[in-house]
Specification:
The longest helix has 14 residues. The chain is globular. It is an alpha+beta fold. It has a seven-stranded mixed β-sheet with strand order 7-4-9-2-1-12-13. The protein has a three-stranded antiparallel β-sheet with strand order 3-10-11, with no helix packed on it. Helices cover about 15% and strands about 35% of the residues. The chain has one domain: Sandwich (Jelly Rolls), CATH 2.60.120.10. A hairpin with a 2-residue loop joins strand 5 and strand 6. The chain binds fe (ii) ion. The site of fe (ii) ion (FE2) has 4 residues, from loops.
Length: about 220
């Protein structure tokens, strides 16, 4: 039988493209509010206090994120919620003890709102050919953190013997970052991908094809 609509390399499942937002969903309303704050606004002119406030309000009282929560066995999961020209919103799920690499943020703004559990953030700075540890802070559900490269490198870890869930807002989107070896400080550029898109598992899909689908 002939496939009348063959998928070619680089195509993605239509379920992974940008969906229609629903006014009934508080997470969709959050992405619309973020779009008003961030799209078309130069990073220097972003009202960071307003953005953090929107994330704090959502983290304090909403649980519409639960439908998109999908934890990974081998590492924390990265689940795409929304992507626009000037920002990307991801839901990260952490099993107890799972941690990110020590990483930078590609010269972009990054907010993290904890939705469930507790996440520990440790700062690092590059010094004398290695890494110097900085402050460690734990964020409980409802807490919002902010970081840029001028502040520090950082590492995030689910702490307190509990799983964790967090919203990560990158403005602008970060498609690759530097990952740092804790012992040597050596940096490696890594492309970041997705575990799921709006609840559809896609760990095997080409992240660049997903980004193209959202840009169309
Ligand atoms: Fe980060």
């Amino acid at each position: 039988m002939t496939d009348l609509n063959p998928m070619t390399d680089g195509d993605v499942d239509p379920a992974m493209a940008r969906p229609v937002r629903s006014d009934d969903c508080s997470l969709d309303r959050l992405t619309a509010a973020l779009e008003r704050e961030l799209d078309g606004v130069s990073p220097a002119d972003v009202d960071g206090t307003r953005v953090a406030s929107l994330l704090r309000e959502y983290a304090a009282g909403e649980d519409s994120w639960r439908r998109y929560a999908a934890a990974g066995d081998d590492s924390y999961s990265r689940n795409l919620i929304w992507r626009a020209r000037d920002f990307e919103l991801l839901l990260l799920c952490w099993k107890s003890g799972q941690a990110s690499a020590i990483h930078d943020h590609g010269d972009q703004n990054c907010w993290m709102a904890v939705l469930d559990g507790a996440l520990e953030e440790e700062h690092f700075s590059a010094r004398d050919g290695g890494l110097k540890r900085g402050r460690v802070k734990t964020y409980e559900a409802g807490g919002v953190a902010f970081i840029r490269d001028e502040i520090a490198l950082h590492q995030i870890r689910a702490t307190g013997g509990r799983d964790g869930v967090s919203l990560h807002l990158y403005a602008r989107p970060i498609d690759s970052c530097l990952s740092f070896c804790p012992e040597t400080g050596d940096a490696t550029r890594i492309e970041v991908g997705y575990t799921s898109v709006r609840g559809t598992a896609c760990a095997e899909a080409d992240p660049e094809a997903i980004r193209r689908a959202w840009a169309e």
